[in-house]
């Protein structure tokens, strides 16, 4: 990797330099020699160099073309280099032999978007070990009724068991970010935590319920594209008080509301 490469803030480049954290990430991924892995943002290779010798196939997606070249020159048949924006790639077209594991020290500015994209493609992944800003990590493990609880919490907890691997202080990176980070491990559940008839519709209801956080469910759902009469009817059927706020509903209640709404629309 070129020594002259200067970290680029716009790409969220905080490179890992602490071997204990790298060890913890690699251990959490429980790698097998025939695993296929996707790494988003390999950067200077802190994780890549440890992943590659341990797996059958490693896909990397890196937006910074100055960093991509060194990986392309490796000519390792196990390494598939995708130069460009991970959010723009068609994951289904590139990852054609599921299941995959996803391992990444994510750029913080796009971590929520990557999570939503991963949730859409959840069938591709069995296990993910991801670094987040601690505040985002807190959101993913949050309980209903707390400020941190949001659409991402509900959707991640529906499909995955989420656990903290390790807290990561700023000095473990170069350059050091201003905030604490944490590594989380997501294991895909054999069945969703609650039964959901139509996952895409469920996600729509959850996102609409959190779209305006300080509003009641009634107002949040009214502002969505769901018909107001069906909202009233469904809420009654599901025994959900529309004066509540979205963040007070647990997974079971969201599932009940989505099911009733689905049959009312
Ligand atoms: N994995 C390396 C490490 O742990 O040291 C680098 C992690 S750094 C936090 C994030 C990496 O993601 C950078 O290499 C950055 O260039 C890359 N990146 C940022 N935005 C990206 C995007 N939209 N798609 C793909 N890679 C991206």
Would you mind describing this structure in some detail?
The protein is α/β, with parallel strands linked by helices and 265 residues long. It has two domains: 9-188, Vaccinia Virus protein VP39 (Rossmann fold); 199-264, Helicase, Ruva Protein, domain 3. Helices cover 36% and strands 20% of the residues. It is built from eleven helices and nine strands. The protein has helices spanning 19-28, 48-51, 65-72, 91-94, 111-120, 134-140, 151-159, 199-210, 217-222, 228-238, 251-264; strands spanning 15-16, 36-40, 57-62, 79-83, 100-105, 125-133, 160-168, 173-174, 181-188. It has a seven-stranded mixed β-sheet. A two-stranded antiparallel ribbon has the order 1-8. Strand 2 (36-40), helix 2 (48-51) and strand 3 (57-62) form a beta-alpha-beta unit. The longest helix has 14 residues, at 251-264. It is elongated, with a radius of gyration of 20 Å. It starts with 14 loop residues before the first strand and ends with a helix. 38% of the residues are buried. The mean pLDDT is 95. The structure holds S-adenosylmethionine.
């Amino acid at each position: 990797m070129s020594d002259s490469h200067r970290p680029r803030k716009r790409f969220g480049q905080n490179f890992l330099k602490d071997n204990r954290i790298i060890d913890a990430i690699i251990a959490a991924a429980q790698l097998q020699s025939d695993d296929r892995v996707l790494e988003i943002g390999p950067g200077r290779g802190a994780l890549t160099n440890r992943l590659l010798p341990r797996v059958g196939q490693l896909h990397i997606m890196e937006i910074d073309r100055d960093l991509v070249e060194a990986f392309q020159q490796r000519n390792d048949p196990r390494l598939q280099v995708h130069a460009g924006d991970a959010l723009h790639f068609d994951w289904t077209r590139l990852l054609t032999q599921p299941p995959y594991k996803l391992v990444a020290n994510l750029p913080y500015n796009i971590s929520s978007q990557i999570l939503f994209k991963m949730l859409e493609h959840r069938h591709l992944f069995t296990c993910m070990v991801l670094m987040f800003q601690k505040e985002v990590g807190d959101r993913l493990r949050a309980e209903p009724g707390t400020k941190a609880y949001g659409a991402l919490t509900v959707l991640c907890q529906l499909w995955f068991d989420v656990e903290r691997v390790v807290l990561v202080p700023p000095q473990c990176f170069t350059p050091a970010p201003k905030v604490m980070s944490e590594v989380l491990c997501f294991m895909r559940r054999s069945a969703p935590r609650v039964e959901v008839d139509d996952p895409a519709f469920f996600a729509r209801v959850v996102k609409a319920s959190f779209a305006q956080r300080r509003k009641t469910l009634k107002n949040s759902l009214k502002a969505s594209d769901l018909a107001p009469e069906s909202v009233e009817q469904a809420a009654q059927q599901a025994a959900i008080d529309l004066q509540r706020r979205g963040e007070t509903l647990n997974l079971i209640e969201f599932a009940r509301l989505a099911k009733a709404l689905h049959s009312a629309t």
